[in-house]
């Protein structure tokens, strides 16, 4: 076991019922104009990404969604998107505002 452990906390943690609707304002406070939402197919199927995308769009933040992630605790079996060697491209969200220089693909 390691003899030393370090923990670095985020500058701000917002949690609680309904706080997902405040994601857009939190991102705006950071000065961001674009966001990449990383999720997995299970959360997309449940529709949990939609409120995050909507909050970002309402705040004028352009959002792309990458839904090729893997759920916590999953292994890298043959059904994993990277197992075939083919990357899963990001799914384009609702563009809002001007994209940040250098981030246009």
Concise account of the structure shown:
The chain is of the alpha+beta class. The chain has helices at 23-29, 41-45, 50-58, and strands at 34-40, 62-69, 91-92. The chain has a three-stranded mixed beta sheet.
Layout of SSEs?
Layout: H1 23-29, E1 34-40, H2 41-45, H3 50-58, E2 62-69, E3 91-92
Parallel strand pairs: 1-2
Antiparallel strand pairs: 2-3
Helix pairs in contact: 1-3
Q: Could you characterize the architecture of this molecule?
A:
This protein has 105 residues and is an alpha+beta fold. The chain has a domain at 19-73 and 86-92: Rossmann fold (3-Layer(aba) Sandwich), CATH 3.40.50. 20% of the residues lie in helices and 16% in strands. It has 3 helices and 3 strands. Strands 1-2-3 form a 3-stranded mixed β-sheet. α1 packs across α3. The protein starts with 22 loop residues before the first helix and ends in a 13-residue tail after the last strand. The model is unreliable at 96-105 (pLDDT under 50).
